[in-house]
Design brief:
There is one protein chain. Helix 5 (168-179) links the parallel strand 9 (155-158) and strand 10. The strands form three sheets. Strands 3-4-5-6-9-10-11-12-13-14 form a ten-stranded mixed β-sheet. A two-stranded parallel sheet has the order 1-2. It folds into two domains: 8-66, DNA polymerase, domain 1; 71-332, Aldolase class I (TIM Barrel, Alpha-Beta Barrel), CATH 3.20.20.70. The protein is globular, with a radius of gyration of 21 Å. The chain has helices spanning 15-22, 30-41, 55-64, 136-148, 168-179, 199-206, 223-229, 232-235, 238-252, 270-280, 305-317, 338-342; strands at 8-9, 65-66, 71-77, 83-88, 94-101, 106-109, 113-115, 130-133, 155-158, 191-195, 213-217, 256-262, 285-291, 322-325. The chain contains twelve helices and 14 strands. The chain binds S-adenosyl-L-homocysteine. Residues 120, 122-123, 159, 163, 194-196, 217, 259, 261, 290, 292-293, 295, 335-336 line the site of S-adenosyl-L-homocysteine (SAH).
Length: 343
């Protein structure tokens, strides 16, 4: 990994692009398949050990490309099996990823940006502002870290730090590589992109012909409260957002999950549940209820279990499918951005 600034990070490239670049180097296209097998399946960290490649090609690759990696800065382990990692990038910036095992699946939660521009009031990620987008390789490396360390990964969610649709091209490239058989081989339906509601991104995503899951963070069914919680609502208010979501569901025939973080006294009333049901009604969608995960320096608190149950049954009564996500890893500050905030 020498002089990375002058070289191309090989994990930033889709296979087709890499193979194209191999022709001028005098290498056959199939060599790209071999190289990527080393990179993604065998988790190689340099070219010198790729012993099925001619030595000359290995040297040429080493002059043009490098294989990036993440450095673990901290690891926290929750009593419930959730593991959280703070990684350092080449430029010293830090990002977080979380490993969430359950009975039948293991999900990894990846970051898409360093910091976040959107500064939702209840979220730790935007508190220190936006730093930069992650490159595709930096997104992939988070998932690859788990593969390298023998964690079994079945699902990937882009719900860590950052707003995936604000880093659209890099995120989509990463998703394609995470999904590709030569990459991580994770099924599209097992990859979720979560957005705070960026309408242009939702519309663009609808045209990608992907089978990935889309989550939309909604958090309130009325513009007044939603604008308080999420500044982005001033730019993309609920009416327009819901129209874009309906368009997305129709175009892709895929169900949208609306994420709803319940915060005591703010968005947890029966009326909120009924209004939410009204917004979502008739659409290919479900609601995922999450109790607010306390963040340092914020006065918000999660509602009690009774309130959460009441909210869910109000949705049930209106015929809206919902799930209640148990807060996981609360003892290790697993809400996105919290660990970096502490550092
Ligand atoms: N920017 C994207 C993805 C990152 S946040 C988005 O907004 O969807 C991923 C999810 O975690 C979002 O639903 C977000 O609202 C939620 N979240 C953020 N902070 C939280 C907290 N303290 N407790 C519970 N959920 C939180």
């Amino acid at each position: 990994m020498t002089q990375p600034d002058r070289k191309i990070d090989i994990k930033d490239l889709l296979k087709e692009k890499l193979a194209e670049g191999f022709a001028p180097l005098g290498a056959e296209r199939f060599r790209a398949t071999q190289v990527l097998d080393w990179v993604y399946r065998r988790c190689a960290d340099d070219f010198s050990g790729m012993n099925n490649l001619p030595a000359g090609l290995r040297r040429t690759l080493d002059e043009k490309f490098y294989i990036s990696d993440l450095e673990v800065v901290r690891k926290l382990e929750s009593k419930d099996g959730v593991k959280k990692f703070l990684f350092q990038l080449e430029d010293g910036e830090k990002i977080e990823s979380v490993f969430i095992p359950s009975k039948s699946t293991s999900t990894v939660c990846l970051s898409s940006q360093v910091g976040c521009k959107f500064a939702c009031k209840f979220c730790a990620s935007g508190k220190t502002g936006f730093v930069r987008n992650l490159r595709p390789a930096e997104i992939i490396n988070q998932a690859l870290f788990f593969r390298k360390n023998k964690y079994h990964v079945t699902n990937i969610v882009l719900m860590g730090m950052g707003e995936p649709l604000d880093n659209y091209d890099n995120v989509l490239k990463a998703v394609r590589i995470l999904n590709a058989p030569y990459g991580l081989g994770v099924g599209q339906r097992k990859i979720t992109i979560s957005t705070c509601g960026l309408i242009p991104g939702i519309k663009k995503l609808a045209k990608e012909k992907l089978q990935i899951e889309l989550s939309v963070s909604i958090h309130s069914p009325n513009d007044k409260t939603r604008s308080i919680l999420m500044g982005v609502n001033n730019k993309y208010p609920l009416k327009d957002l819901m129209e874009a979501c309906r368009g997305y569901a129709k175009q892709t025939n895929r169900q949208i999950t609306f994420e709803y973080v319940l915060i005591k006294g703010l968005n947890d009333s029966k009326k909120d549940a009924q209004d939410l049901a009204g917004l979502v009604k008739g659409m290919l969608a479900k609601v995922n209820l999450i109790a607010f995960n306390p963040v340092d320096g914020l006065d918000y608190v999660p509602p009690g279990l009774d309130c959460t149950r009441m909210f869910k049954s109000a949705l049930d009564r209106k015929g809206i499918v919902s799930t209640m996500r148990n807060p996981r890893g609360a003892d290790i500050e697993a809400a996105c951005g919290q660990l970096r905030l502490r550092h």
